[in-house]
Amino acid sequence: MFISGASRGIGRSIAVSFAKAGASTIVLGARSGLDASEEAVKKAAQEAGRSPPQVLKIKLDVVDPASVAQAAAEVETSAGRLDVLVNNAGLIDMTMIKDSDPETWWRVWEVNIKGPYLVARAFLPLMLKAEDSLKQVVTVARYENHKLNLYQSITNLASVSAPTSPRPLCQHTSRQN
Q1: Which residue of 45, 79, 93, 99 is most buried, as measured by CB atoms within 10 A?
Q2: Which candidate in 43, 59, 143, 151 is catalytic?
Q3: Among 129, 135, 147, 151, which one carries the catalytic annotation?
Q4: To 10 degrees, the CA torsion angle through 46, 50, 52, 56?
Q5: How remote is the C-alpha of 103 from its chain's centroid?
Q6: Domains of the chain, with CATH numbers?
Q7: What span, in angstroms and rounded, lies between the C-alpha atoms of 47 and 32?
């Protein structure tokens, strides 16, 4: 499994939960350091009586296509496959729009909208190579119901521009015996 934004918070908690459940390989991706997340994952597996998972730490910027492609290549080289992809990297700026900085607003947009797209686009081919497993793509999002802020404006724009019916990122049919 691969988790973007795994250096702290929800991303680290997701990694810890999978370690407790017995995941054999957990790939952590983030812009910031991942040593504390790796320690937490190994400790959680041990406390749950599980074998420690193979942990791979990847420096990753989800808005940089080259960085994301390199991360996918590293996962393929190290693990050979990917069954679970968690798009967790995110950025929130609670600044009111009237007080906001356009560059910060755009960075929030890139991380929260472009990032999951680039990550899914880079990792889906690897996920589809393994025909013997269920594949799962999860995108973590947060919505605050307060005054209109940068994050809400992006979330609202994304929901307005999204198709009216949910569609999978790709269509894949597996054969079962």
Answers
A1: 45
A2: 143
A3: 147
A4: -120
A5: 23
A6: 2-91+119-142 (3.40.50.720)
A7: 26
Question: Catalytic site residue 147?
Answer: yes
The pairing of beta strand 54-59 with beta strand 25-30? parallel
**Active-site residue flag, 20:** no
Please report the beta strands in 34-100, taking only residues with DSSP state E, as ranges in sequence order: 54-59, 84-87
CB atoms near residue 121 (< 10 Å): 15
Q: What is the largest CA-CA distance in the chain?
A: 59
Residue 171 tokens, joined: 């269509």
- pLDDT (tens, 9 = 90+) of the chain, 177 residues, equals 999 999 999 999 999 999 999 999 999 999 999 999 999 999 999 999 999 999 999 999 999 999 999 999 999 999 989 999 999 998 888 888 888 899 998 999 899 999 999 999 999 999 988 777 767 777 776 544 444 444 444 444 444 333 333 344 444 333 333
pLDDT number for residue 117: 93
Q: Which amino acid is at 88?
A: N
Can you point out the beta strands (E) in 60-103?
84-87
| Alpha-helix runs per DSSP H in the chain | 9-21, 35-47, 65-79, 102-109, 115-129, 150-161
